[in-house]
C-alpha cells in the first residue's frame, strides 16, 4: 500500500523490529478477544442491565452495540488485509492510513482506554472476591491483582496467552452451570425494566454495557506478536464477535426468567445464586476478569511502544519505545501502564470507569471505520484489501459511533472531541515527518477535482478575490512583492511565486531544487504559496508564455504582480510583456519601491481615485484587502480626488460620501482643489508622507512605452507606489457593491 514494508524507521531514526512470535488465530486473536468480551460486565452488570431496561431493551442494546463492533470489525479486516499490521494495533492502522497526527490523536486516548480497562477488570475481580470474603479490603485486593497481572504480562506474552486457555475452560464451565440452574424466585418476564422504581435511562445503561463488546481490540492490539496478522485478525475477530453475540442474546432470556427486575438490579452476584453450581460462576468471574485484565495489560504497552517509536509522545517519554528480551516485550511500557491502572483502581469503581472507556473506544472505532471508508471511497490504486468492504458500511459505522456517543452524553462527547483535536493540533504543530504515505493527499485530490469541475467558467463578481502570481526574480531581493501579494490574499487566495531563468544549462533537477529552496524561504516567512522556476531564452517572453499556460481549468492566476524597472534597455520588452498580460485578461500590479522607506510605518495609504469604473473598483478592493491584513491592520486609507474648483469639490463630497459609505471599506474621502496646480504637483505635495500610494495605469496601446516612461518620471522620489491595471472581464464596482462578500471574509 503505502510504505508499510520498511523494517527501518527512517522517520524516527530507530530500527523498528517486526517480531513474529508465532501466535496464531485461535491463541493470538480469538482467545484474548472472546475472553475480554465475556468479562466483568457480563458477570457483574448484565443482571443490572436486564433489570433496568428489561428483556427487549437488553436485546436491543446487545444488538446495537454488537452492530457497531461488527461494522468496525469489517473495517479492521479491510485494513488488515491491505497492509502488514505491526505493533500498535488500531493506532498503527489509523496512523498509516490517515496520517501520524490522526493516528496519534486516537492512539493516545486508546492507550488511556486500555490502561483504564485493566482497572475496570481488576476492580470487577476485587468486587467479586470481597462479596465472597467480606473481611478483605476492596482496594487492597484490586491493587494486588493489578500488580499481579502486570508481572505476568512482563514475564511473557506467550505464557499469558497459554494461561488464558485454562481460563476459557473455566468460563465455559460457569456458563454451562448457569444454563443448568433454576429460578431463585417467582417472576414474570419484564420486557422494559423495573416499573416500580426509577430505573436508569437506556443510554446510561448502554454506556455501562458497551465495554463488554470492545474485546475485538484485544486481538488487534496483539498484532505485533501474531504470525500472520492479515489472516488472523479478521478470522479471529469475526469468530469472537459471533460467539459473543450468541451468548449475550441468550443470557438475558435466562436472567429475565429467573429473577425479577429489582433483584437483578440490586444483586451484582445474582448469577451465582441462579447457577447449578454457584462456585462455577466465581471461577468464571475470576477467570474472565483476570484474563481481560491480562489482555489489556498486554495491549496497552504495545500501543504505547508504537507511539513512542513513531515519536508521537514527547521526547522525554521516548524510553517507552524500548523493548526487552527476544520478543521485544515493552516492559517499561508495562510498568508505566501499571502506574496508571493502580491509580484508577484506587480512585474508581465499575460504573464510573465503564462510561469513560465507552467514549474512548467509540472514538477509536469511529476513526477506524472512517479510515477504511475513506480509503475505499477514494478507490486509491494502492488500497487493495483481499477482504473487500463497501465504503458505505464503514462510514455507517463511523456515523453510528458518533450518534451513540452524543446520545450517551453530549457533554462528554464534546470534551472527548476537544481532547482529540488538541492532541491532533499539537502533533501537527510539530510538523512530524514519516516514511510512509497516508490517505490525506488522496482526500485533497478528490476535493480539488470536484471543486475544479464545479467551478463556473464564467467569473462571478460576488466570489472574486485575487489569486496573485508574483514574478519575483530572486525572492530574497524582492520580498516586498511577495509581502504585498500575501497581504492581499488574506490566506484565502492562491499565491504563486515564479522566477524566470535564461540560462541554457539548468537541468530539471536543479529547477526542482530551486523551487524547493523558494518554498522553504516562503515557509520561513510564514507565507503559504507555490513556487515555480521557469527557463526561457528570453525573460519577458518566457514570463508571458508561463502566465498564459499556468493554471488548471478555470483556476488561473488572475493578478500578476511584478516590480518596476528603470532600465531603458529592456523597457520596450517590459511594456510589451505588460500589454500581453492585459490581452490575457490578467490584472497587473506593478510595485515601484522606495528602497529607503520600503512600506514605511504601514499606517497611511493614499489612493488616487477616478471612480468605480476602470481601475477604480480594483484599486478600492486591493486597498481594502491590504488594510484587512495583519501587517496593515491599523492603516488608514484615504481616497484622494482632484477637482478644478470649489463648486466641483462640494458636488464631489456630496455625491461620493454616500457611495463610499455604502461600499463599507473604511476609507475616508479627501477632495483636493487644484487651484491651478498640475496633478504631479498635487501628488508630490499631498502624498509625500504616505507609506503607500495606489494609482491606476492606462490601458496599453501603441504609445504605452512612452506613457510608462512618463509615469516613472512622475513618481520619482515618491513613497512606494502600487500601479494597478484592471483587465478581467468583470465589474469590480459590482464586487464592491455586493452586500456580504467582505463582511464574511474579513
Q: What would you say this structure looks like, in words?
A:
It is a single chain. The protein has 746 residues and is α/β, with parallel strands linked by helices. It folds into 2 domains: 8-440, Amino acid/polyamine transporter I (Up-down Bundle), CATH 1.20.1740; 468-745, Rossmann fold (3-Layer(aba) Sandwich). It contains 28 helices and 12 strands. It has helices at 25-37, 40-44, 46-80, 90-98, 100-132, 138-155, 157-179, 202-209, 216-220, 229-258, 261-266, 270-274, 278-309, 331-347, 350-378, 391-408, 410-429, 440-454, 479-489, 508-524, 539-549, 571-583, 616-628, 646-663, 679-686, 704-714, 732-737, 741-745; strands at 8-9, 14-15, 468-471, 496-501, 530-535, 559-563, 587-592, 604-608, 636-643, 668-673, 692-696, 721-725. Helix 3 packs parallel to helix 15, helix 21 packs parallel to helix 22 and helix 22 (571-583) crosses helix 26. The protein is elongated and about 115 Å long.
